[in-house]
Specification:
The protein is α/β, with parallel strands linked by helices. It has 20 helices and 20 strands. Strands 1, 2, 3, 4, 5, 6, 7 and 8 form an 8-stranded mixed sheet that branches. Strands 9-10-15-16-17-18-19-20 form an 8-stranded parallel β-barrel, surrounded by 7 helices. The radius of gyration is 25 Å and the shape is elongated. The termini are far apart.
Amino acid sequence: MKNISLALCCALLLCSCGKRIAKIETVDIVPLPASVQVSDGVFDLKKSTRICLLSDDSMLNYSVNLLNGLLDKSFGKPLAAVRADEPQAGAINIRLSDLAPEEYTLSVKPEGIDIAAGGPAGAFYAVETLRQLLPVAVARGERAGVIELPAVEIADKPFFAYRGGMLDVGRHFFDVDEVKTFIDILAMHKLNRFHWHLTEDQGWRIEIKKYPELMNTGAFRPCCSLAPDAQQPDSVPYGGYFTQDQVRDIVRYAGERFITVIPEIELPGHASAALASYQQLGCKGEGYGVENIWGVKENVYCAGKESTFEFLEDVLSEVVELFPSEYIHIGGDECPKTRWKECPYCQKRIREEKLKDEHELQSYFVQRMEKFLAGKGRRIIGWDEILEGGLSETATVMSWRGTEGGIAAAKMGNQVIMTPTTHCYLDYYPTKNTENEPQGIGGYLPARQVYSLDPYAGLNADEQKYILGVQGNLWTEFISEPDHAHYMLLPRLAAISEVGWSYDNEDRNYDDFKKRMTTLAERYDAAGYAYGKHMWTEDDAAQTAAQQQ
């Protein structure tokens, strides 16, 4: 009996390994490629298929790793990658060409797969497109002997250079693996910037070696999470921070997916965690604690003390050593002026610098930090409040309070990233039926509204060139778990990715996007990502009601 059972198991294993997985029925890619031409025939992908690298660039190995990560479970082993001088029949041939760095062509024919890209990033995006051509059974990890891919010719490139997603780890802490999963989601959608919101009133999340109290004190608050209308708080301390080695690991991980990590170190406001750690940094010099309650806080960095700028310069000096990004985000939003109006140090600074008022004091603060970072070869991004009191010519504005700030900045000749609450704040409820939804911060932002974002609205052709791109933001006042985060992100992040990648595509429209999302949603399921499966139904009902009015 044992021999019979063993023979039966071996037969079943051989059958499973030899299974042919049929090609997908329709070619639906998100974000929408510039050109897609489908023809008859299939390419039979096998475990013996080789990946041939026709260009000598080590960063092409990131595309090899991605592809093997997609196929490894089905084949039980990675495909062999070899260096070749000429395209090989029956292989996946990858080469660099004279296209733009993120541009690629993908040709799937019965005799082989050819990828040409302007740079390693373009090759990586070609493989991300190939992910959506693989049958969903492969995404689920089903064993196979042969995987059929549809014959197709795709030419593609992004419209906007900056295509981002922001994760706030200040309000709620997400660990290294959870941050990496967020990065994986960005990569799946061909987004290339990870805006990492690292400091807040409710927690300081990055190790700064010169100032250990930022980790000992600033990284932890007395209880987990509270809204302004909350009842009695619990008494369980909550927090965490990323060591510098962990930061380096995350930056490396993102880089292998052609995603640049942009850190945000908030100033002059949202500073309670820092003030709790080093009391002298505030105007009063005492009485500060890490905040439990969400909302805008009046305790901010003192703009009149030189010790404040010495502290921030020390902090940013360590930050720029960890992040190779051209940009450092310095916040600049929601900074009440109450303490500055009462502070003799700040009032002295206003007089000595011949400033008009506290708004110009904030501009002084921001521009002083900008000058410091410029000396280290970096540029700043700030929320649109940095327009108030005067804006330097080199600052980049992230427009969040609608698009008005971005429009004003572009008209002044400053670069802009559009991320308005009206279209890009993914902590807003995705449906109107909030009683049955995971908790959001409020508002109503359906996928259709996200998709309708027009980053160029209100700008003429000359002004449009200052729009770098778009970004979706996930603030976490009410989001403490990965599944909740993914639910709020998906599928709305896909809508943002299509605006950023396919903005000028004449074939782009929301109804077609919804149809194509069916294929991508199957990949969400296979990856175990929670997402709003019912959002489309409510969206259709809302659209019908609007048309009947």
